[in-house]
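Recap from last week: sequence in, structure out.
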Amino acid sequence: MTSLTSSTPPDLSGRSLSARRAFANRTATILIGLCVLIAAFPLVLVVWEVLSRGSSAMSLGFLIDEIPRNYRTEGPGMGPAIVGTLVITGMAALIAIPIGVLGAVYLNEYGKNKPLAKFIRTMADVMTGVPSIVMGLFIYVAYVVVIGEKIGFAGALALACLMLPIVIRSAEEMLRLVPDELRQASAGLGARKWRTTMTVVLPTASSGITSGALLAIARAAGETAPIIVTVGLTYIFKPDLFVGENTTLAAQIYRNATQPFAAAQERAWGAALTLIAIVFLFTIVSRIISARFAIDKR
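Predicted structure tokens:
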């Protein structure tokens, strides 16, 4: 009897398919890395340019001293502009954040797909894409012209208009991520809808809402056009936002950068570095708060 032996050929097609998948994976990873580098390259150039040119102007006096009235005068400082940036942006945040969060609560918890809710979402999306100068001109016509003078509060209103759609959309997205089981459990215990929203939904989404609000503040702090249109272009800070012109870092960057004098140029770069540091600080604070809320939830 002749015994027949059969041998199974190696699975060359399977190995070839695995090799192609590995090659495609490596290629995609390399391309993604290149895209990240290309996107980060302009940012690195901007940061390096501001650091290299603005670091020479940085000192304690630059942060606290008065702004020179003469563009040719060398030395500090930007104290009034720093305080003005914090005060005007803080007032804008006090206006925009509560209204934005309450609007997001209505859209996600009550409005849903009602016509009014759809209209508000559409208008929020439209406002997100509106240039900042348009917001400044709107506040100028609707408020500054009516009262007859440029004041700090008008600038806060313009910045609040820019912050509002960001806060609404980011807060609504965070509220959507809250599981419905939490709402149902609270309702099952007899809590009314408003109480469930205040004690369950908002605390659960608080980390994301806080991050979105602080990012909106960081964006508003760097706006120049609406500040110049509504607040004016001066070198002093007035604690009363309802009296007279005021100043911010963004306005001082424009005011000094447009001058041909070396001293003014140095102050402009120093103010730009200070503004970037403030925005960076807001970003770090938002990350810390988000992480803190995440730990508390665990």
